[in-house]
Amino acid sequence: MPELTANGIAIDDTFAEAFDMRATAIIITAPTERWAVQAAETMTGFATSVIGCGCEGGVESARSPDETPDGRPGVRVLLFAVSTAELQKQLQNRVGQCVLTSPGSACYAGLDSGDDKLKLGDAIRFFGDGWQIAKRLGDRRYWRVPVMDGEFVCESTTYLTKKAVGGGNLIVMGDSPAKTLHATEAAVEAMRKVAEVIMPFPGGIARSGSKVGSKYKGASASTNDSYCPTLKGAVDSALSPEIGSVLEIVIDGLTSEAVANAMRAGLAAIVGAGNYGGKLGRHHYHLKDLLP
Amino acid sequence: MSALTFSLRAPPDQRLDLSPLTPQNLAGKAVAEIERIELQTTRVRITAGDVFRIRDGAPAAIVIEGGSARFDRVAMGLAAGSIRVDGEVGAQAGRLMSGGQLTIHGHAGPFAGSGMKGGTLDIGGDADERLGGPLSGETVGMSGGILHVRGDAGERVGDRLRRGFILVEGRAGAYAGSRMIAGTLAVGGEAGDLPGYLMGRGTILLGQGAALLSPTFGDCGEYELVATRLLANHIAQTSAKLADLFRRPLRRLAGDLAALGKGEILLPRT
């Protein structure tokens, strides 16, 4: 594979590929930032990959009190899924189990326009068992659901976009796990500052990159053996001899441009991007085009 | 282009029906045509030209210079544009309006904003009884928009209110928010007897309580609610005073428990 270098870091002249997804956004507020973050992280904890979690999600950004509808600290959460029906199901279950239950929380639409609407409070309001109250303020409608610490306020709907992109990635390779993790952490930190993207894996980083298919029936994906350093001598490895550790940053964005922006930001620290031979998606991000 | 202006020549000899004088009705009409519009409510014919000196202008903005308690149905059915009255008006001002802005620099008679569905009605003075309420035989009162009274309101303000905001800066008469279906009524001063009488749902804020509260409202305690912050933000542009009341700790009385009982009276901490 041809290589480029930037500041002594080798960049493979390759591309990351990603696919179309449906996405939505919500804003969660709470009496303190700590509890807004808590609700959001609980909601998006088991949301690393659509393969096993039904959706991918994460905290996109923090919102100061003057940026939220109710003047309390908040966060914006993005949620991605492969279909509108699945996105609706995941949103409803996750808000119902993780945000409704979180002390002092309230929940609002995080997209003001889009291709379609998703039920937010309209799906949660039944928890009120008839004591829920709707308030229409201008063109927005809110549900007030009585709960044990007061009321859970939840906007009735939010929007979804069909222009979202999932699975953009950067693959970071280093000669040791510690160095590789350090570089990848730096990349994630830079990428978190980019709007309209999330990195859904733990701390933004995945260490178990997968390939499409498996020798076992019923498994749609399996370990990406050509990127496993411990198999370097046993398989047709993609890794050069000095590579001892590989980590992946997966990026989901509300737009293709947002994904490119995040990769550009991450590339300030990197590295090489993985592709899956063109089998996964139509969006290709050529690293040479994204170099700082 | 300046506003289409109606200047009152002399106080009218009979009650007038001003409902034809709306932007949607006057669009494309010449002054001569407008002058021929009949406004009488008795058998004595009286036209717009008899009552007003009319200065041509854009009908999207109508100004009525001079008011009268005999000006009934001002801006009835207003859908877009604006009407300003420099003076008082009679009954049913802004009735059934669905959009636009009606501004009255004076008092308004009974049934102002009756059954309004949208838009903004701003009354600079006091409003008489049944503000926003339905006429006899109708089942629903105001169902949308913002109705703002800078003075006091009479009895049964917000009767059968279904949606939208009624904001009264001053006091309200007896039975404020009677038979409310939903929606929001805020009264800055004291309300008369039995606010929320037989209300099913909806929110009534009483800045200085009421002369007599019904025993069919149950005290639920005092809270600082997220929902009332949203209400406060929504009305802050219209009434900073009432918005401030919504931001205070609020005692919540649930009722009317003699009816559906899913409404609330909110009493700000003083």
The strand count of chain A comes to 16
Overall pLDDT level of chain B: 96
Shape of chain B: elongated
Overall shape of chain A: it is elongated
The appropriate CATH architecture of the largest domain in chain A is 2-Layer Sandwich
Strand residues, percent of chain B: 25-35%
- Specify the CATH class of chain B: Mainly Beta
Q: Uncertain segments of chain A of ≥5 residues (pLDDT<50)?
A: 271-280
In this structure, how is the largest beta sheet of chain A organized? 12 strands, mixed
Count of helical regions of chain B: 5
Number of strands of chain B: 17
- Top-tier CATH class of the largest domain in chain A: Alpha Beta
Mean pLDDT of chain A: 90
Proportion of residues in helical segments of chain A: 10-25%
Give the termini separation of chain A: 21 Å
Task: Assign the CATH architecture of chain B.
Answer: 3 Solenoid
Question: What key phrases describe this protein's structure?
Answer:
heterodimer; A: 292 residues; alpha+beta; Alpha-Beta Plaits; 2 domains; twelve-stranded mixed β-sheet; two-stranded antiparallel ribbon; 7 helices; 23% helix; B: 270 residues; Pectate Lyase C-like; 13-stranded mixed β-sheet; two-stranded parallel sheet; 5 helices; 11% helix; elongated
What does this structure look like?
The complex is a heterodimer of chains A (292) and B (270). Chain A is of the alpha+beta class and 292 residues long. Chain A has 2 domains: 3-18 and 164-290, Alpha-Beta Plaits (2-Layer Sandwich); 21-161, Alpha-Beta Plaits (2-Layer Sandwich), CATH 3.30.70.520. In chain A, 23% of the residues lie in helices and 36% in strands. Chain A has 7 helices and 16 strands. Chain A has helices at 33-44, 50-53, 84-99, 121-124, 177-191, 256-266, 287-290; strands at residues 3-6, 9-12, 15-29, 56-63, 74-81, 106-109, 116-119, 133-137, 140-147, 150-155, 157-174, 197-198, 210-212, 221-223, 245-253, 283-286. In chain A, helix 1 (33-44) crosses helix 3 (84-99). The longest helix of chain A is centred in the first third of the chain and has 16 residues, at 84-99. Chain A is elongated and about 65 Å long. The radius of gyration of chain B is 19 Å and the shape is elongated. Chain B is 11% helix and 31% strand. In chain B, strand 16 and strand 17 form a beta hairpin. With 270 residues, chain B is mainly beta. In chain B, strands 3-1-4-6-7-8-9-10-11-13-17-16-15 form a 13-stranded mixed beta sheet. Chain B has a two-stranded parallel ribbon with strand order 2-5. A two-stranded parallel ribbon of chain B has the order 12-14. Chain B has 5 helices and 17 strands. Chain B has a single domain (61-268), classed as Pectate Lyase C-like. The chains are: A alpha+beta (292), B mainly beta (270). The interface between A and B is medium-sized, with 19 and 15 residues.
